[in-house]
Amino acid sequence: MLGYAAYADRFAGTLADVGTRASYLRELGVGYLHLMPLLTPRPAPNDGGYAVMDYRFVRPDLGTTDDLRDLATVLRSHGISLCLDLVLNHVAREHEWAVAARAGDPEKRAYFHVHDDRTMPDAYEATLPEVFPDFAPGSFTWDDELAGWVWTTFNDYQWDVDWSNPAVLCEYAAIILELANLGVEVFRLDAIAFLWKRLGTDCQNQPEVHELTRALRTVARIAAPAVLFKAEAIVGPADLPAYLGVGPHAGRVSDLAYHNGLMVQVWSMLASRDVRLASYALQQLPQPPSTTSWVTYVRCHDDIGWAVADEDARAVGIDPVAHRRFLSDWYSGSFPGSWARGLVFQHNELTGDRRISGSLASLAGLEAGDAGAVPRILLAHAIVLSFGGLPVIWMGDELGLPNDLGWADDPAHAGDNRWVHRPRMAWAEAGSDPHGITTGLRHLVDVRRSLPQLHAAVPTEVWDPRDPRVLLVVRRHDDGPLLAAVNVSDEEAWVDADVLHWLGLHTPGLRDAVSGTAPALVAGAVRLAPWAAAWLYDGGA
Question: Across the chain, what does the average pLDDT equal?
Answer without folding.
Answer: 97
